[in-house]
Write a structure and sequence with these properties.
Oligomer: single chain
Order of helices and strands: EEHHHEEHE
Structural class: alpha+beta
Distance between the termini: 30 Å
């Protein structure tokens, strides 16, 4: 059993023609349950910042702008992932098996990536490919 998990959240965009990653957080989870909780919490955190609730704090005029209907709705995708029990169980199984898990969602300008893997797996040579879960 893998006891500790390293979790990361990163936003990627393009600046001056190069893909740039901006770290949004890292957590060393002492248990599988806490790793899953942190991933869901960070996904919800991103969703809330991209698409705040109407009853929240007022924003300055022009701070929020609508996007085209063709742009993937990252907040909806991340909230759906958080609520999907089967996906959570699949992530738990993969992490418990020592495999890297990547959850990603993109809109027209940014890719949001949540990563988690066993600290034990980081210490060992991995021969099993990572599980990649596209959202959407």
């Amino acid at each position: 059993m893998h006891d500790e998990f390293l979790c990361h959240v990163t936003a990627y965009g393009v600046c001056d023609g190069r893909r740039i990653g901006v770290p949004l957080g890292t957590y060393r989870a002492p248990t599988l349950a806490l790793a899953l909780w942190w991933l869901r919490d960070r996904a919800s955190w991103i969703a809330e910042r991209l698409d705040p609730r109407p009853d929240g704090t007022p924003f300055p005029t022009g701070a929020l702008v609508p996007v085209a209907d063709t742009v993937p709705d990252v907040p909806v995708l991340l909230r759906a992932w958080c609520a999907d029990v089967e996906q959570q169980e699949r992530v738990a199984d993969e992490l418990a098996g020592g495999r890297l898990v990547r959850i990603a969602a993109s809109d027209d300008t940014t890719e949001y990536e949540l990563l988690a893997e066993s600290v034990d797996a980081l210490r060992m040579q991995r021969v099993v490919p990572a599980l990649v879960l596209p959202v959407g």
